[in-house]
Amino acid sequence: MLIVFTLTLVLLIFICVLYLQHPLFGRSPSGERLLRIKNSPNYQQGQFRNLTEKLGMADCSHTFLELYRTFIKTIPHRRPKDIIPSIKNNLQTLDPQQDVMIWFGHSSVFMQLHGKKFLIDPVMSGKVSPLPWGTRAYRGTDIYTVEELPEIDYLLISHDHYDHLDYKTILKLKNKVKYVITGLGVGEHFEYWGYPKSMLIEKDWGDRIEFDDGITIITETTHHDSRRAFDSGKNLWISFIIQSPSKKIFYTGDGGYNKHFVEIGQKYGPFDWALMENGQYDAAWHAVHCHPNEVAQATEELKARNMIPVHHSKFSLAKHPWYEPITRIAEYSKSRKYRLATPMIGELVELDNDRQSFKQWWENIR
To answer: Do residues 221 and 240 touch, judged by C-beta distance below 8 A?
Structure first.
């Protein structure tokens, strides 16, 4: 029995090691890229650090209760039984002069601004896990394909977690993208996957990129981490400020609530629109994802006029009912200084139309 157990264990370890060689896990930074990372003031003791260090699970009150609820307890309604409603638009025939945004579910967003086309954290493969049996998209949420996208001027990647940097999607996008803009080190994955180095723009917190087409992109801080296999903190996680001659848009990326929202609002605000991470949260790892009440507060601190909540309604990555993030942010946004926009997946959001209304599409969905 001992021999059988040992051989089985060795076989499992061998299979795991072999599977970790799959390209989807990417590659750790090296060479010139690693030297640049080590020169960053945000890289200390072998990894990137948040501006304010916060503990994860150990920081929670009633730690054992949170462990039980997070890893053992069954939470009802984690996935919807019904099909999530959506709208299908032809992205190839949009008026190039119209500033619009389309949410694809979770944090994936297509945007047309000042005649330029942006794609943010696209996940279009139907799953967000390196494992074959991993987390699948809800029915009705994966209605757009990479083939249906127009040519993309700017592909923005906030960090390298699987629900923001999707291997299959990135491979298909290779011949559709002009520039990839991301945090320090993340370009190593793209180069490993066949993207030419000339396309990759990797930036630190507080860096500014001014393009000759009237577009400025600023990469800023957020409170999160990075990881694709076992090593964390090897690549930088970022938020984005996207500016055209007429608009200023903020995308939070992933991250927990911290003082950086006030600081970004003071330094760059007010914003016309904010895309705010709202979902896949838990008290046991509160430090790295905002809860809806914090999202509402942060949106006001950013001085945003309009807000679209993202990071919800496509994948179940936390122990809360699927509808809870959008339901709670709708409640917390009442009587706030900003306008809450809750488009359906695929719905065209007109960035210049303050009177555009949105349905509470999640109601009555089981």
So the answer is: no
